[in-house]
Design a protein that fits this description.
- This protein is mostly beta strands.
- It has 1 helix and 6 strands; from the N terminus they run ββββββα.
- It has one domain (8-101).
- The strands form 2 sheets. Strands 3-4-5-6 form a 4-stranded antiparallel beta sheet, with helices on one face. A two-stranded antiparallel sheet has the order 1-2.
- A hairpin with a 6-residue loop joins strand 1 (8-9) and strand 2 (16-17).
- The longest helix has 8 residues, at 91-98.
- Bound molecules: zinc ion (2 copies).
Length: 102
Amino acid sequence: MKKINESFICINCWKKISQAEKTCRNHCPYCFVSLHVDWDIPWDRDTDCWWKMYPTTYETRNWVLKILFKCSKCFKQHRNKRSPEDEITQLNNFIDLYQSKF
Ligand SMILES: [Zn+2]
Ligand SMILES: [Zn+2]
């Protein structure tokens, strides 16, 4: 499996996102939108959905914050750890904002 960990442009807010430190980044740290490429194993590209996924809720377990994302096309849901770079104080606002997407 090839890991993809390159800088990219966010498809939602168009900000440039630099490489993640340790993990493959799969959501935007500014607006929390990601692409539904695959989510059972990140980045194995097992789907051709390629629609936007939005955060819908989150939970904290063992001090690790996990964000639940939902695809706005096929409604598949996927949990993902937050990144240290995430603007986490904005997460609640974005979750409210994206409720209209579904
Ligand atoms: Zn973004
Ligand atoms: Zn999808």
